[in-house]
Amino acid sequence: MRNGRAAEGGRQGEVLALAAGLFASNGYSATTVRDIADAAGILSGSLYHHFASKEAMANAILTAFLDEILGRYDEIVAADMPARETFEALATASLLAMERHQAAIVIYQNDGRHLALLENFAYLRDAGERFEQAWVGVLQRGIEEGEFRRSLDPRLTYRFIRATLWTVARWYRPGGPQSAQEIADQYLSILLDGIARGKKKKTKE
Amino acid sequence: MRNGRAAEGGRQGEVLALAAGLFASNGYSATTVRDIADAAGILSGSLYHHFASKEAMANAILTAFLDEILGRYDEIVAADMPARETFEALATASLLAMERHQAAIVIYQNDGRHLALLENFAYLRDAGERFEQAWVGVLQRGIEEGEFRRSLDPRLTYRFIRATLWTVARWYRPGGPQSAQEIADQYLSILLDGIARGKKKKTKE
Amino acid sequence: MRNGRAAEGGRQGEVLALAAGLFASNGYSATTVRDIADAAGILSGSLYHHFASKEAMANAILTAFLDEILGRYDEIVAADMPARETFEALATASLLAMERHQAAIVIYQNDGRHLALLENFAYLRDAGERFEQAWVGVLQRGIEEGEFRRSLDPRLTYRFIRATLWTVARWYRPGGPQSAQEIADQYLSILLDGIARGKKKKTKE
Amino acid sequence: MRNGRAAEGGRQGEVLALAAGLFASNGYSATTVRDIADAAGILSGSLYHHFASKEAMANAILTAFLDEILGRYDEIVAADMPARETFEALATASLLAMERHQAAIVIYQNDGRHLALLENFAYLRDAGERFEQAWVGVLQRGIEEGEFRRSLDPRLTYRFIRATLWTVARWYRPGGPQSAQEIADQYLSILLDGIARGKKKKTKE
DNA sequence: GATGAATGAGAGTTCATTCAT
DNA sequence: TATGAATGAACTCTCATTCAT
């Protein structure tokens, strides 16, 4: 039974994890179906017992990630916290997602643009918009509520944040010197208060 | 005459620009030599009168960018300014580089990892290290000189910065609402002072 | 128990009928074992409990048809009727065979040539010769007995007849406007007396 | 330059002729692109310099035949001859078409049904209708004008004729004992006047 | 009898590259 | 410089078949 869903049970899940790793390190289009099959110890044709196509594999990988993270985003936004807490929660959730979906995030970041052009990946565009809405929303609310500086351009700020959030997955090593949580904390500290020392200059805005 | 270098004048330069645009929007490995030839209005075989190989094109594109930006970095570091000014100059130089090398930056960001595995692109690893040295250097100096917060992890901070710096090229549109200089200013403002309003909490560090 | 013969009873027969339908509408080589299994509601591997191979299925289908029709031809020829009656009986028998073997006839007509090249289908060549012998025989006898025009080339005439006889199965719809018997009658009428009206021109030959 | 047109000039034409021969003798789907390339003495990939796909080859082959024969049909119908002459001209034109398009006719006859299901071969359905219109038209006219027997069912009669007309190409050998013209004459003689000897029975209809 | 995972060969196609003209 | 024909390797995917469970 060919399965486009997440990587839960059995063989399918293992194969998907291997594929995700290869897509992430070599790129989607530079990864061949044979590479994946080799990694799984089977012949390339046998992969098609589990997945309808190479695209279907990427699909399953990305969908598992996006469904989870966007679900988490929805929960956070729905929780109706002060803007700054919502903001922190979104950033933390995004970085913690690396623990279960690191490869997917790398693929999303590296190949997302290109894949989104394919019919089967139309949902990537929707996902991009949902990310943006959540972030731009909380930034605007924070500005209105006086939590964030009035001079911010929400969309531009979102783009700066987005870049860092998803790029971390490129170098993050689980079990490495910094945990995802620690990375999130450091990033939030920099993002909220800046790297410069001393009293803020633009306090009055 | 096959040329692996950056090609300013004439046909070579035009072809290179077309190739850069295609590599940037479709990805290096998804761009075919025929795509480039089509864009140039010639046949794919004819490209080989200008360039020795597809890799040579990517090489010329990336080298032109890296030579220029790393030269600029060297100048800035050599100028011996206060850490904060050096810092601002590096960020600004990186973002202004988009004006002449947007496609190259996108390629560097998207395909750099993958290309760096190829023999002909060994210099990409060196470039990465030189970037890192410049940034980690100025961050450390800034901390020592009391300009930047003592709590920063320079390498981690560099990685956050790097992500944003090069990712901007993905969405930047020359002649669009924000100039590269404006983007640089906004980014620096956020990076240095944070997005949060009000007096700094961690002033004493 | 693998069975290469015609399969009347039970599952085998049902599967064979499904396979015959698919072979007939899509062609033998364009029909996959999976198509057949899907139609039967089982997995493709499970088909091999019933049949040794895809060829064995085609074999069973064609054999069932050929055994029956050639047996009928033998009876007709042995009955020792006047040439014209034999002739009519052969044509009618061939067209009535559609009622039980329509798909087999389509396969025989469409894929027979190609299949006959395979070892397992050597009998198709024999069958072709037996058809030809029966028809060429009755045509020659008819000419000798003065029933048929002396100007006929028996082999050529046989080829004209054969084409129509087996091609009817391509468009015949059981329960449609014309029964197989009616089609046979119309064909015989045209074949024997022609479509032109008025007195025969070549009466004296 | 990839060419979907007929098999006129140079290499393209040669390759097309080879492909046509293979499609005709082995069937379209049983003929591999490698078979064609082997026959042409090149590698399979090189075929794609001349043709966009295997389908494109079949397309060019069938189109060349259909354009020519349907053009001929149009001329004949437009010539406004007595029904019987039109009828003879159509049959003769169809059989003489074998001289330039024998393989195409075999492909049309064997694989036409199956190919017509593919998007790129939609025109096959139109062609089928144009053939039918021409023949059914002339049959009806002939009946009205008293040339053909009133008892004929034009569509059914057309189907009988069609079967023979296109099936001849399966066994016809150029330079063999009978020319296409001789075959046409014999077929017309049988078709118009029947194979039975002696006075017509159904003269009064 | 049926499943489901796997095989292994081969399908159509793509593509960077070469080279005689 | 450019063309156009060809190469050769690799690619995604298909499919008849096998077999342990």
TrEMBL record, chains A, B, C, D:
<feature type="domain" description="HTH tetR-type">
    <location>
        <begin position="9"/>
        <end position="69"/>
    </location>
</feature>
<keyword id="KW-0804">Transcription</keyword>
<keyword id="KW-0678">Repressor</keyword>
<dbReference type="InterPro" id="IPR001647">
    <property type="entry name" value="HTH_TetR"/>
</dbReference>
<dbReference type="InterPro" id="IPR050109">
    <property type="entry name" value="HTH-type_TetR-like_transc_reg"/>
</dbReference>
<feature type="DNA-binding region" description="H-T-H motif">
    <location>
        <begin position="32"/>
        <end position="51"/>
    </location>
</feature>
<dbReference type="Pfam" id="PF00440">
    <property type="entry name" value="TetR_N"/>
</dbReference>
<dbReference type="InterPro" id="IPR041490">
    <property type="entry name" value="KstR2_TetR_C"/>
</dbReference>
<keyword id="KW-0805">Transcription regulation</keyword>
<dbReference type="InterPro" id="IPR009057">
    <property type="entry name" value="Homeodomain-like_sf"/>
</dbReference>
<dbReference type="Pfam" id="PF17932">
    <property type="entry name" value="TetR_C_24"/>
</dbReference>
<protein>
    <submittedName>
        <fullName>TetR/AcrR family transcriptional regulator</fullName>
    </submittedName>
</protein>
<keyword id="KW-0238">DNA-binding</keyword>
<dbReference type="InterPro" id="IPR036271">
    <property type="entry name" value="Tet_transcr_reg_TetR-rel_C_sf"/>
</dbReference>
